[in-house]
Each structure stands twice: as structure tokens, then as C-alpha cells.
Amino acid sequence: MLYDAYEMQRSLLAGASTLANIGAGWLQNPVNPFAYNGVSPIFASALDVFAHASAPRGKPEFGFDRIIVNGREVAVHEEIALRRPFGQLKHFRREGVEGGPKLLIVAPMSGHYATLLRGTVERMLPGHDVYITDWRDAKLVPTDQGRFDLDDYIDYLIGFLEHIGPGAHMLAVCQPSVPAYAAAAAMSRDKNPARPRSLTMMGGPIDTRKAPTAVNTVATDHPHSWFQRNLIATVPYSYPGSGRAVYPGFMQLAGFMAMNLNDHLTSHWEMFKHLVQGDGESADSTKGFYEEYRSVCDMTAEFYLQTVDVVFQRHLLPKGEFEHRGVTIDPGALKDVALLAIEGERDDISGIGQTRAALDISTGLPAKLKKYHLARGVGHYGIFNGSKWREQIAPVVEDWIRTHGG
């Protein structure tokens, strides 16, 4: 019922968004005599904001056509290096550019598409041979393709690294810090030659007992049965994944928007003012962020519920009790994978100390293979996107990769 109600509302809003777009265009049309009175720009801007907020969204594109490498422009080709039911390994091939450290960027499976890391990829692409995990929307995966849980996530990462080959580096943003760490530890235990040379974790919930945020509080204030009863829905018949139990992306989006409602309302108000004043650049920047932020996808119920239980409620990884396929993940197994933990001073999703905990539990690693970086004045999104990421944080990552075999 929950999903059906959402689909009905989405259909209604899609029509309203189209009408609002038409109305905004008509009020701004130079051949329309009413466009020149003082009220029309205000009405047009209001319609524009509403049309953008209510428009239906699909999977965005990365949109990389060309980049600058060593002062020259080169073409970029997106290729699917490996395809799996619940996600694919995407490779950004730089035409005519050979070499460079191989880098697997692990995108979150948290209700958004991998394109949320467009800025991360764009910054690392000139100097690295970049791959990224491109997770699928669970409602589009037929039920005959099976299940996907946290164990499968780790298996996918191991398989992706094996496909890329020895010598790769791994960068995990937010939620995948836990499965990426587990994959690196499991591969180290098994002496897998494709284990990463370095693992960078950015704003990840390794130990959510440290400086708990509102996200962590929600997870600990409710029993596991509450999440299963209130947040899990069944995919409607109109999608390929009909009948699959999922945690809907629109639920995740609603939760994050509610956490910072004042900020989001302010952003839309600022966008409205920029449109009225004709400041297209500022308005477009805000639009671009929300275009990506509001493009959401579903997670399988088993992955979501297992993550809530293992990571946020029982804290099994920092306790040394995390299991993958029935085998305990030993943080002490990490012997030669260089770890870099990055946190944002103003992160309201993963508090300070949650990612740094990975360095503390890695008792088998020498100090020279551990590094911590606190990004001053940076929130969660700013760790991996925006000017501070490009100018202050990315150079730290690049130096770490270069130092450890990159």
C-alpha cells in the first residue's frame, strides 16, 4: 500500500510539474506582453521551483565526454567492465592515456545512484585509471535473480577487485566503508593477490558508537522488528522487480530531507531569489545538486535490514564479531593494505571518530600504513564533492595512493 500510494502521488505531481514548466515558460516568453510586468518574473520563478521539486527523475548520467590530462584534452569512454545482477563495474577509459594507478571507487548503496559521486570521479580521473561500482535499482531486478545482502556486497567488491587485477587502490565513500574494509581484510587473510594496495574510507560508519548522529540514534532507538514492519515495502507489479521486498529510495530521501528540513527549505528559497534576480549560475548550481539528490533508487530489504542490524545496532565490525559467509572478519588480518581515514568536521551523518575507528581496530598494521585526515569546515557531502574536496581533500588521497604503490 505504501508503494502504491507513492506511485499515485508521483503520477499526479508529474502532471503538475509539466503544467508548471509550461506556465513558467509562457510567463518568461518575450512575445508574451504580460512577461514585462513586475509580477510575472516572481510567478515564473515560483513555478520553476515547484516544477523542479516535483519532476519525476530517473537514473542520471555521469556525462563525462572529455577531460584534461597533462594539459591536453582527451576523450572519456564509459565501459561496463563486469556486469552482475545487482550492480556493474563501470570503467572510465581515457582515450590515448595509458597507465596511472588503478582506482576502484565504491559508491554507497544508500538510496542514491553512483552518479552522486560524479565530482569524486571527475577529480580523480585525470591522474588515475578509474572504476566505480554502479549499483542497480532493486525494483528493476527480477526476483528470479535472487537476493542481495551485505555478504553479497562484499563478494561483489572482491570480484570487482579480482577483475581489475593486482595493484589497485580502493576508495569507499560513506556506507561502503564497512563492506570495503571487510573485503580488504578477507582478501588479506586469504592472501588474495588482488587485495587493494590502499583503502581510503571517507565519512564511513565503522564504529557508530563514536559521536553518534541523528542517523545513528534512529537506528538504536527502535528494535529491528520496527524497521521491518514500518520501512519495508513490496515492489508494485508495474516494475521488473515486482514482488521483491525493498527499502524504497523515497523513504531514504524523506528521512534525510527531514533531518535538515530548514536547510533544504532555505536552499529552495535561495534558488527562488536567484531566479527572480536573474542569477542563473547560482540557481543552476542549486538545481544541479537537487537533481542528483532527489534521484533515488531502492535497496533490497535484506541488505538494508542486515546493515541496520550489523553496523548500526550491534556494531559487530569494531567488536571483532563481524562475519562474512560464516567466517569472522579479523581486523588484525590487515598487514599490508595502507588505510586512510577521512572525516568531515561538520559531518552530521557519520560523526567524528566513526571512520577513524578503522585505524584503531587494525592492530596488525604498522603506523606508517595508517593515516587520519580531518577536513575542517566540511560536512558529509563536502567530503567527496565541491571545492574543498577538489582542492584540500583529493590531494591527500592522491598523495596516499602515490606513496603506497600508486
Task: Write a structural description.
There is one protein chain. The chain is of the alpha/beta class and 406 residues long. It folds into two domains: 2-56 and 249-293, no CATH class; 66-219 and 298-403, 3-Layer(aba) Sandwich (Rossmann fold). The protein is built from 14 helices and 14 strands. A nine-stranded mixed beta sheet has the order 1-2-3-5-4-6-7-13-14, sandwiched between helices. A three-stranded antiparallel beta sheet has the order 8-9-10. Helix 13 (357-361) links the parallel strand 13 (338-344) and strand 14 (370-375). The longest helix has 27 residues, at 2-28.
The share of residues in helices is 40-55%
Please summarize the sheet with the most strands: 9 strands, mixed
What is the CATH third-level topology name of the largest domain? Rossmann fold
Helix/strand-derived category reads alpha/beta
Low-confidence stretches: 9-29, 31-57, 255-281
**What string gives the helices and strands in order?**
HHEEEEHEHEHEHHEEHHHEHHEEEHEH
Mean pLDDT comes to 81
User: Could you give the count of β-strands?
Assistant: 14
User: What would you say the CATH architecture of the largest domain is?
Assistant: 3-Layer(aba) Sandwich
**Approximate strand percentage:** 15-25%
CATH superfamily of the largest domain: Alpha/Beta hydrolase fold, catalytic domain
State the separation between the terminal residues, measured CA to CA: 51 Å
> In DSSP terms, counting alpha (H) and pi (I) runs of 4 or more, how many helices?
14
The radius of gyration over CA amounts to 22 Å
* Count of spatially separate domains: 2
Strand order in the sheet with the most strands: 1-2-3-5-4-6-7-13-14
The CATH top-level class label of the largest domain: Alpha Beta
CA-based shape: globular
